[in-house]
């Protein structure tokens, strides 16, 4: 019979208690035989002392065994048989007394049987004693009658003992059931306590992961700290955090097997066919064994010795922005609790990504506003200077002519008038740039599209630049017959003229400016190259923005508003073309205008 340790311990304690009571019963038996009983038939007193001796010896042996042997069930059954036999022996000895209460002592083995074995033990012992009652009554009537055999002396004690056995047995079984229920409830409470403890541990670990994600406003640093905390929370052989960027997946952070060689941090790959396509539906993907390859990347993971994978979406609300992948070497390595936990961590990671991206967007906005504010301040200062210089020259020349007209020679008068004309033209160009910029921003910059002869336009612009100055030669190179383009001729000439003027402005005296035009692959390209100081790479984007001017290099300090290239690129883009620059510091710059043919 197999019983659990707790019940075995209860049986052992009951057996020890019964053994102690049995020793007390030996003392009672000695007093009963030697003091309280008299008028023994011949030989009965001797028989009573023998029975008491046997009972005492057996009681001592059972007392010792109850505290030493692990065979609780066997000792209990032996003790029950011994106790029943001992009480029955006394009942037989004292049957010479008509109405002797000795036989009622058989209630003790009945109760003992009920305590040990419940209903079965109590009823079983009572029923087993019925033949004994019959024999004991027959023996009394035969040896010591009258009266003769009295059936009531059999049925009544047998019935009382049976009822006693049933009552005590039922109470014992109920007690056992209650004890078992209490044990189950205690086990359930312990399990709930353990689960609560595990939940608390998980929440604490999740909190550490959340703190790690919030430890930096740089994605790579934040996720690096997150992965270090993750290893202690959800052990892995490999992990990766992937974000969606446009239509591709970019690995933000990875650790574990093959981290430096297989899908390393910073690498990207198409989403089509990958597990990320399924993760975007908002549910985790659990692959307990990747031996049956379902996604292309799984074969690479199998080659690394990895077998199972858990992938949780990074959810912002109901929208997935990436995934958190946990991979292990063993198949069937993930439990439902881990699936739930990794899903929670995916939400935490998604929130961190969203916060970092929001911060980055705000930071870029602030930086852009700060840069634009600085550009506007520079523009105001620049325009003020650009306006003040020609205005001062015009006003000074006009007053000189007004006050000293008669004293000036004709040549001097012409020189002052030419200066006034040049400076007013400069003012007009400056105001024109400001107005053009305003119209471009307002969307009211007008165009009149016709078929434009590019070759003629380039030749005119080159010729005009050569006539306007003689320090920097300007050469045109037209490769083959150029097709016409559809555009606004004056606006396109404005671009070419601006590029040539800039090249002349930044070119050393005597160094030529090369203007070349040619057609290829359905576009017309116009290159304007100089041999000036060049433009540093970090400022090649700046010069195309409003008020943007190079802040380093030999060209710093040249006159201009920083609007010409912004206007030129806006016109080019309005024609479906582009305006770019290629430059090496110290080796000049080449501005390239591309326009679609037709």
SSE string, helix = H, strand = E?
A: HHHHHHHEEEHEHEEHHEHEEHEEHEE
What's the helical proportion of residues?
Answer: 55-70%
Q: What is the spatial order of strands in the main beta sheet?
A: 3-2-1-6-5-4
Compute the separation of the termini in Å.
100 Å
Low-confidence stretches: none
Major β-sheet annotation = 6 strands, antiparallel
Mean pLDDT: 84
Write down the overall geometry: rod-shaped
How many helix segments? Answer: 14
Provide an overview of this structure.
It contains 14 helices and 13 strands. The chain folds into three domains: 5-186; 219-362, 2-Layer Sandwich (Beta-Lactamase), CATH 3.30.450; 450-596, Histidine kinase-like ATPase, C-terminal domain (Heat Shock Protein 90, 2-Layer Sandwich), CATH 3.30.565. The strands form three sheets. A six-stranded antiparallel β-sheet has the order 3-2-1-6-5-4. A five-stranded mixed β-sheet has the order 8-10-11-13-12. The protein has a two-stranded antiparallel sheet with strand order 7-9. With 598 residues, it is α+β, with helices and mostly antiparallel strands. Helix 3 packs across helix 4 and helix 10 runs antiparallel to helix 11 (410-442). The longest helix has 69 residues, at 336-404. It is 59% helix and 14% strand. Strand 5 and strand 6 (319-328) form a beta hairpin.
Nutshell version of this structure?
The protein has helices at residues 5-36, 44-66, 72-93, 107-128, 130-144, 152-213, 219-233, 275-279, 296-303, 336-404, 410-442, 454-468, 489-506, 564-574; strands at 238-245, 248-256, 268-270, 285-287, 308-316, 319-328, 450-452, 474-479, 485-487, 513-520, 523-529, 578-583, 589-596.
């Amino acid at each position: 019979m197999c019983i659990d340790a707790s019940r075995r311990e209860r049986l052992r304690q009951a057996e020890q208690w019964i053994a102690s009571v049995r020793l007390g019963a030996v003392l009672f038996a000695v007093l009963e035989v030697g003091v309280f009983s008299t008028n023994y038939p011949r030989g009965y007193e001797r028989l009573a002392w023998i029975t008491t001796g046997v009972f005492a010896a057996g009681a001592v042996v059972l007392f010792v065994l109850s505290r030493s042997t692990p065979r609780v069930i066997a000792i209990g059954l032996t003790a029950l048989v011994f106790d029943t036999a001992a009480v029955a022996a006394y009942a037989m000895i004292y049957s010479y007394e008509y109405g002797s209460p000795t036989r009622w002592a058989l209630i003790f083995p009945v109760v003992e049987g009920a305590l040990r074995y419940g209903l079965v033990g109590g009823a079983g012992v009572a029923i087993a004693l019925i033949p004994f009652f019959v024999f004991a009554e027959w023996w009394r009537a035969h040896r010591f009658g009258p009266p003769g055999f009295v059936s009531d002396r059999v049925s009544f004690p047998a019935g009382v003992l049976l009822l006693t056995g049933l009552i005590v047995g039922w109470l014992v079984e109920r007690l056992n059931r209650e004890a078992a229920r209490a044990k189950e409830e205690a086990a359930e409470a312990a399990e709930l306590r353990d689960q609560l403890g595990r939940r608390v541990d998980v929440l604490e670990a999740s909190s550490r992961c959340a703190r790690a994600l919030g430890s930096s406003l740089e994605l790579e640093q934040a996720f690096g700290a997150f992965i270090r905390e993750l290893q202690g929370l959800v052990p892995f052989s490999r992990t990766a955090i992937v974000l969606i960027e446009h239509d591709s997946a970019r690995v933000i952070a990875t650790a574990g097997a093959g981290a430096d060689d297989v899908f390393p941090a910073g690498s990207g790959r198409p989403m089509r066919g990958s597990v990320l396509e399924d993760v975007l539906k908002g549910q985790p993907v659990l692959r307990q064994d990747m031996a049956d390859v379902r996604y292309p990347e799984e074969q690479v993971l199998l080659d690394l010795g990895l077998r199972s994978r858990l992938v949780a979406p990074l959810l912002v609300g109901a929208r997935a922005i990436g995934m958190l992948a946990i991979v292990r070497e063993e198949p069937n390595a993930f439990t439902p609790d881990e699936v739930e936990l990794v899903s929670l961590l995916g939400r935490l990671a998604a929130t961190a990504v969203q916060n970092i991206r929001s911060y980055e967007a705000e930071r870029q906005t602030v930086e852009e506003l700060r840069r634009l504010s600085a550009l506007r301040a520079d523009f105001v200062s620049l325009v003020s200077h650009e306006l003040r210089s020609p205005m001062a020259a015009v006003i000074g020349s006009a007053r000189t002519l007004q006050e000293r007209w008669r004293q000036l020679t004709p040549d001097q008068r012409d020189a002052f008038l030419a200066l006034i004309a040049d400076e007013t033209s400069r003012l007009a160009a400056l105001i024109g740039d400001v107005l053009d910029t305003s119209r471009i921003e307002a969307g009211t910059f007008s165009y009149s599209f016709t078929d434009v002869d590019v070759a003629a336009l380039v030749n005119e612009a080159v010729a005009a630049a050569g006539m306007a100055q003689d320090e920097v030669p300007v050469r045109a190179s037209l490769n083959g017959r150029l097709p016409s383009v559809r555009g606004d001729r004056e606006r396109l000439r404005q671009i070419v003229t601006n590029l040539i003027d800039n090249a002349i402005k930044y070119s050393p005296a005597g160094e030529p400016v090369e203007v070349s035009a040619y057609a290829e692959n359905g576009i017309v390209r116009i290159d304007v190259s100089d041999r000036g100081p060049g433009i540093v790479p970090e400022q090649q984007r700046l010069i195309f923005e409003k008020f943007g001017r190079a802040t380093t290099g030999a060209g710093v300090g040249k006159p201009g508003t920083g609007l010409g290239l912004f206007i030129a690129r806006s016109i080019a883009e309005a024609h479906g073309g582009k305006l770019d620059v290629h430059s090496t510091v110290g080796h000049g710059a080449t501005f390239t205008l591309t326009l679609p043919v037709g």
